[in-house]
């Protein structure tokens, strides 16, 4: 199987590093921002935020036509700077939170899967990151 290059997405949010960390990792917030489009939502989220701890979010189409679990195990948890985890399918993800004068720059790098086009994956993950930015800056 061909090894695909990791995909990187970014955004910058106007919030403190501590607030960004809280909203990114707390299930009560995750269910409010974790979707790639308005016709999807996260119905359930859980997180044991520690190295070796697990997480799981249930993402579903609002019309009930489909859904899936997004889950894995944290390999590194360094608040409020970095998260690394491995998805249940073996792909690796890292999220860096860098304090800036204006707030926090979030850089997320993930191994793509082999089913969907790279552009679709990048755009979907970026849409979720954009929803996070909108949510944290409005709340």
TrEMBL record:
Alphabetical list of InterPro entries matching this protein: ASHA1/2-like_C, START-like_dom_sf
Source organism, top-level taxon: Bacteria
Residue span, Activator of Hsp90 ATPase homologue 1/2-like C-terminal domain: 14-137
Family statement: Belongs to the AHA1 family.
Protein name according to UniProt: Activator of Hsp90 ATPase homologue 1/2-like C-terminal domain-containing protein
Organism: Constantimarinum furrinae
């Amino acid at each position: 199987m061909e090894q695909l290059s990791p995909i990187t997405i970014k955004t910058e949010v106007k919030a403190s590093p501590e607030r960004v960390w809280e909203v990114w990792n707390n299930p009560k917030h995750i269910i409010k921002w974790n979707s790639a489009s308005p016709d999807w939502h996260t119905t359930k989220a859980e997180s044991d935020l520690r190295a070796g701890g697990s997480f799981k979010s249930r993402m579903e189409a609002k019309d009930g036509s489909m859904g899936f679990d997004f889950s894995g195990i944290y390999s590194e948890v360094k608040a409020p700077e970095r998260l690394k985890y491995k998805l249940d399918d073996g792909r690796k993800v890292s999220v860096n939170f860098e304090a800036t004068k204006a707030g926090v720059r979030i850089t997320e790098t993930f191994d793509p899967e082999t089913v969907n086009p790279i552009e679709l994956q990048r755009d979907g993950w970026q849409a979720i990151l954009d929803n996070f930015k909108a949510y944290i800056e409005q709340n």
